[in-house]
Amino acid sequence: MNGKNYLMSAAIAVIASGAMLLLPACAEDKASEQTAAINQPTEVVTQAPTESVLEETVQPSETAEPDDNVDALNNVEMYSCGEVKTNESVRFSTNEGLLNDTKTIEFAGNKYELKYTRTIEYVLLNTVVDEYEIEVNNVFPVYVSDMGRVELLPDGTPYAIRTKSAGKINVKNCQNGEDVRKALEEVFKDEIDFSAFNVCKIEGPSPELDHIFYRIIWYKEISGILTNSYVSVSLDHDGNVRDLRMTNNVDLGLDNVPDNISVDDYTDAFEAKIKEFFGEYLIEFKIDKDSARLTNIKGSPCIDVEYIVKVGGEGFIDPLFDSVDMVAVIKP
Hints:
About 10% of the residues lie in helices and about 35% in strands.
C-alpha cells in the first residue's frame, strides 16, 4: 500500500454504510452568510452552506501535476478536522503545572469559580488557551452536558466564556437583529470596545433551533476580507448569552497586510497543493471564497480559505466529501 492509499484507507470504515458525508470546517468561524457594515447590520436566517455558496468547481487534470512554482507550493499548508489525515487545526494537551489549579474571575458583572481542565491550541489563530470548568453551586459538574467553560489566555484575559448565561438581554424588547446587537453591545460595553470593528454579521432569528436564536459576530475587515479578530455571541430564545468568544484579545499581527490582497492571488498554489496531496483519489474540489479569513499561523500573517473536496476510487464504496482549510503565508 503506498502513502496515499494509507492516508485514505482510514476513511473507508467511516463510509462503509454508503453514506456521503459533508463535513464542516472546524475550530474557527467560517459562516458564509451576508456581511454588512456595522452601521447597517443585516439580518440573515442561519442556514447550512449550499452549493450556490461554493464556487469554481474544478475537475483535476489526469496528470494532476503540482504547480511549477515550488516556492508557492511550499508556502501552502492544509488543515482539516474531518476524514482527511493532515495537519490538525486544534490540539489538546495537559499542563501538568496547572492540574488542580483553581481561580476566580469576574466578567461583565458575573463571578466565575474555575478549575483547570486542559490546554487548547488553536493553530489557525496562533493562540494557546487554558480551559477551566465553571463551578456550579459550589460543585464542579460531573456530567459534560452541565459544564460551563472559560478559556483564558496566558495573562488571564478571557478568550471565551461558554456557559448558560455569560450575559442576558431582554429579548422581548428586540424587534429585529439590530435591536439585539445594540442590547448586547450595552451589556458588554465595559468589557469590549465594539468601535474597533468595522463589520457586523447577524445570523437569525432561528426559531427552529433549541439553543441558538441569534448569533452576532463583530469583525475587523482588511481589504474586503474578514479577519480572525472578532467577537462572537450566541444568544438563546430567553436572551441568555450561551457562548461568547473574543479572539480579538489576541494580536494577529495583520497591520502590514497589503491593501490589494486577494484570494485569487493564492488559488493556483492552493489547487496545486490539493492535487499533489490527493493525487489519483481526487475527483473534484470547490472553493468557498466567502470563507476567506486573514489570520496568523506560527507567527506569520496568513490567508485561510475553505475547500470542499470529493475523493474516491479503489477501496471506496462511495465518494467521500470533506472540507479542508488551505492556508498560505501572505505575500509582502
